[in-house]
Write a structure and sequence with these properties.
Largest sheet: 2 strands, antiparallel
Helix content: 55-70%
Radius of gyration: 13 Å
Number of helices: 4
Shape: globular
Number of strands: 2
Distance between the termini: 27 Å
Structural class: mainly alpha
Length: 77
Amino acid sequence: MKLRYYDMLIQHALHSSAYLDVAKYYHKIWETPSVKEDESDKGRVVCFKLAVYSRVVNFPLPGFGTYRVLRCPCPAR
């Protein structure tokens, strides 16, 4: 149920181009024990998407260098 809820939130955030929210929602999905412990593709896909959207929101700001919003907590597999 929780995964479906965040899936819907991700679709809405993508529709409104709210990439920071997308990264936060993927992080919430990653924190779910069933996804974190999953060794199949589901855990890896969530980890990959979290890394991609975390990279999208880590953008350079004028005069401030790189602004790191989120760090990907996914282990290297």
